[in-house]
TrEMBL record:
<dbReference type="Pfam" id="PF01344">
    <property type="entry name" value="Kelch_1"/>
</dbReference>
<protein>
    <submittedName>
        <fullName>Uncharacterized protein</fullName>
    </submittedName>
</protein>
<dbReference type="InterPro" id="IPR015915">
    <property type="entry name" value="Kelch-typ_b-propeller"/>
</dbReference>
<dbReference type="InterPro" id="IPR006652">
    <property type="entry name" value="Kelch_1"/>
</dbReference>
Amino acid sequence: MKTNLPQKSYNNGDSSKLDFLSSLNNSTRNQLTVFSLKNFSQEKSILNLPEFIDENICICPLPDNKVFCYGNLSWNNTESRIPSVTGLTFIINPDLSIEILEEGIKCYGSGGVFYDGNVYVYGGYNDIGVIEKIASKYNFQDKNWKIISSLPVPSSFCSCVEYMGLILVGGASRSNKIFAYDIATNSYSEFLSEIEETKILCKSNGHAYIINPGGFIYESENNNPFVWKSINKCEWSRDFCDLIGFQMVFENYFYFIEYEYGLCNYYRFDLVRKCMDFDTVNNWLRTHYL
């Protein structure tokens, strides 16, 4: 079953602008539920995936309404009820067809961002459940993976955004820092040491934002990735996100998903009012789908 997902032009070259929201259906473990966000359309599609997977897959928006998916807990052996970690990598196309790519490092719970022909992937868990510092990139021209410099600290469920030529990496790391990866030097800088644990990053119209659940919302100043100001209190409070899932900017909102005990919680950040608006999306989904 397909839904017509309209093509969009990307404002300000922002490759994260997609017009559908997706989540993993934990009851079957091999399906992706796709909701259209265009005018809160009531269209929905169920997409069958290459293998049984858990919700801990890295889902990264690409240009041209494509989605890059990487790494997961595989549930192919459903009788044993014991998952295995894979480096499964594939692209979901606008028509919801799937293109299988070269496998990456076996990992799950990573975070990724597309920039300049590459997807950069950070952190996650290895096959024995240990949080990793490892980082890698997938190049679409060469169609292969390459290891890059590791994160300074182990991190999982990373939230990443490209800003002013740097890749800012937050997420759930048990660290009170955010790291900026310099592609040219293959190295990291750190900043904002007052932010604790979970950090969710996004950008729109030349500004980058950091959402710190239970803390504050920060905005970049003067196009400087190392200078930030607190602009609002973050009323949404979480001690530690299990997973910050599919993240994207659509129109005047930044959407993301938190997976908690097999359930999907949908949230959005209002880029105009610069505050969280988490009730609207979940109420809408409950009305139309749940």
